[in-house]
Amino acid sequence: MFYAWIASIIYGVNAITGKLTIRHRVANPWLFHFVWEFFILIGILPIALTYHAPMPVAWGSIALAGFFAFLVGTLYILALNQLDVSVIGPLYNFRSVFTALLGAAFLSEVLTGGQYLLIGIIFTAGIFLNIDEHFRLKAFFRKQSMLGMLAVFTSAIFGFTIKNSIAANGFWTTSLWMALIATIFSLSTLPLFYKDLRKTPIRNYSGAIITGLLSAFGDLAANKAFSANVTISSAIISIPFSMIFAFLFSTFAPALLEKHTIRIYAVRFVAAGIMILAAIKLS
User: How many angstroms separate the CA atoms of 247 and 62, rounded?
Assistant: First the structure.
């Protein structure tokens, strides 16, 4: 639980630095994603080598974890590019829902009536989470929100792949090779950003580099948490610290990140609070 809390705080800060960078410095999300993945690897590499991470034993499980690391990172950055930080952060409370449903579907875990009720509460609160100034509840079903939900769903699967790989290969081997495989996969997106790679000034990459290095420490903490328990760790890591930071930005520097009325933020905070309590209870 300690490592899950550390990861949750780091990810909250990262959502802010990532959104600021995409909005003001590196507009191409595919370019940002590649730099981000590369510096996650750079951050993890010296620590893993210090702990003498051996070669993988079970290549299948570590390759699967690496692929999902790439997929989760890609979907998260694309969603972060299109959604408010005050929406995408709380949206990750759905990870507890997806984790519970995946456990029931593939691990023969039995969900009680009370757990299904909690799942319904989270979905209902999630609809209000996406509300905008026009108070249109259908905003939850727009393509940007569905992209965010897809990112959350894949992150739930990702948690299970991490746990399986660590059980087979060890913590440091999984952390190192998963980051390496994710970076290799991100090279496949080169056609989507190589023109911007040449045109973007070096100084503009500072935010992406900082976000990547912070993510390295967040990922190590999250991996450690998932190696012990996927469900509880998912609930803690999904607590949206980024939402609080986004609200502060909207108050003191609205031009930098996002700006909504107090009424909208009140609805979003209430919805997020309900989702957090239900997700913790569900876990």
Answer: 38
